[in-house]
Structure formats: C-alpha cells, structure tokens
Design a protein that fits this description.
- Helix content is about 30%, strand content about 45%.
- It has about 150 residues and is an alpha+beta fold.
- A hairpin with a 1-residue loop joins strand 5 and strand 6.
- The chain is globular, with a radius of gyration of 15 Å.
- About 20% of the residues are buried.
- The model has no long low-confidence stretch (mean pLDDT about 95).
Length: about 150
C-alpha cells in the first residue's frame, strides 16, 4: 500500500499533441521543469516509449534529492501513460490526457512510498512537508510546461 497518493491536474490552452509529445520526452524535462535535476535514459523503449527506462532525480525547497528508476509499462497514445518507480520512491505514476474545446487536461496520479529509512522514520512528523514539497514540484511542472508551449495554464 502506498504511503502517499497525489493527484495533480494541469489545464492548458494547447493542442493535445503538443502536450503529449512534450511530456513524453522526459529527457528534456530538466530544460523546462524546475525541480527535475536530471533524467538519464537507460533504455528508450519503443516508438511510443513503452519499455522506456530512465533514472530521474528531483529536488525542491527541502534539502534532499530523490532519485528513482522509472519504467514505462503501459501507453495508450495521447490518452494514458503508466510508469513504475523504484529507488528512493517506489510506486506507480499514471498520466491521463484529454482535450475538449481547445483545452488539454493533464491529470497525474502518483501512488508512492518512500524507501529512505530517515524519511520513513520521520514520516509521522514530516508527511505534511513531503506533501507540500511534492505539490511545489508539480506546480513548477505545470508552469514550465505552459512556458515551454507558450500558452497559459487555465
């Protein structure tokens, strides 16, 4: 069972294709997503990124970096992508995409557990701060995606 379940939604006045392809290209995340320290691709996966394996490092305001290996395990082009994480965090991330009336909606669901001993020991005290930290990184992602696509978040 996951220690944390997060849901993030971004709405952008942008074509679905542009949003999908920008998020799909995780190697480029550090160029537009503040908080993504690095993405090192281990295996590219197929033409839809199915089977892609990347080591991703993240950092926000709190003084720690989290690194995990993300493996793309399911892809429905322009609708859904699912990945499994193992490392400092372990769990499942699910990206949902939809488009209506010129607005692309991205919904990200992240069910994850921490694996670092210090985080697990201090979880009763620090869980609100870990949640706050996650929310900041995801806000940065939405803002960066909007800037990258030259469109506003709505």
């Amino acid at each position: 069972m996951a220690d944390y379940s997060f849901v993030t939604e971004w709405k952008l006045k942008a074509p679905l294709e542009a949003v999908w392809s920008t998020i799909l290209d995780s190697k480029a995340w550090p160029s537009w997503w503040k908080g993504v320290v690095s993405v090192r691709e281990i295996h590219p996966g197929d033409e839809n990124r199915l089977g892609n394996i990347s080591d991703i490092s993240w950092r926000s305001f709190l003084p720690y970096t989290l690194t995990f290996r993300a493996t793309v395990v399911k892809v429905i082009p322009m609708e859904y992508m699912e990945g499994q994480a193992n490392g400092d965090l372990a769990g499942t991330g699910r990206w949902y995409f939809s488009h209506e009336n010129g607005i692309t909606k991205v919904r990200y669901k992240w069910d994850v557990s921490t694996t670092k001993r210090w985080m697990n020991v201090l979880k009763p005290l620090l869980k609100p701060f870990f949640t706050w930290n996650h929310d900041i990184v995801m806000r940065w992602g939405g803002e960066g995606l909007a800037r990258k696509l030259g469109t506003p978040l709505v």
